[in-house]
Specification:
By secondary structure, this protein is mostly helical. It is built from five helices and two strands. α2 runs antiparallel to α3. Helix content is 67%, strand content 3%. Strands 1-2 form a two-stranded antiparallel sheet.
Length: 192
């Protein structure tokens, strides 16, 4: 699709990132009103895209995920100093999937077997723990009145349950039915 536009790679990178940010915001913004801790965390079905963006879109997906979160914070009035840690965590969340399936795993990405789904579940949990470790302490440090346990549990559950319940089925659909391939590089066949 983007390759057929005959644009230089940096332009395609920007277009892809912009499209992914728009998709993120379409899902994220309506749920910003479902606050758990107002201004700090809410119910986030958009987390289903965390593994999708990392595996199928690589670095552009990671950038889109974090930029989308930042724009969501700005639009909902919850932009704070702790948004810096949120920015980092929302980049690293999908980046864990990209690194695991691109660099660490000895086999190509696939969720065709129960073993591969279990591996994906483990990566989802690791990614969520990383997000909690980055966001929760920084919020507690700057805003000590925030309930640390509730914040940590909410971040973990958002980062785990939505990718498990919605992200895995979406990834299977994208790979098996829609022909998406894991991210390789900007001019690879995933963008044709």
């Amino acid at each position: 699709m983007l390759k057929n536009l005959n644009l230089p790679n940096p332009v395609r990178l920007c277009l892809l990132t912009a499209v992914l940010v728009m998709v993120y915001l379409i899902i994220a913004i309506p749920f910003k009103v479902m606050n758990v801790i107002p201004g700090f965390t809410d119910i986030r079905p958009v987390m289903l895209f965390k593994p999708v963006y990392g595996v199928f879109f690589g670095i552009p997906g990671c950038l889109a995920f974090t930029i989308g979160n930042l724009i969501g914070d700005i639009m909902s009035g919850s932009l704070r100093w702790t948004s810096v840690s949120g920015f980092a965590a929302n980049f690293l969340g999908p980046y864990v999937f990209y690194v695991f399936w691109k660099r660490i795993s000895k086999t190509p990405f696939s969720l065709r077997t129960f073993k591969r789904i279990l591996i994906q579940i483990a990566v989802i949990i690791v990614s969520s723990v990383i997000e909690v470790v980055i966001i929760a302490p920084s919020v507690k440090l700057i805003y000590p009145e925030v309930d640390f346990i509730l914040l940590s549990v909410t971040i973990f559950l958002n980062g785990t349950l939505f990718p498990l319940a919605l992200g895995i089925p979406l990834m299977i659909l994208m790979q098996e039915e829609l022909g998406f391939k894991p991210y390789k590089k900007l001019n690879s066949e995933v963008y044709e």
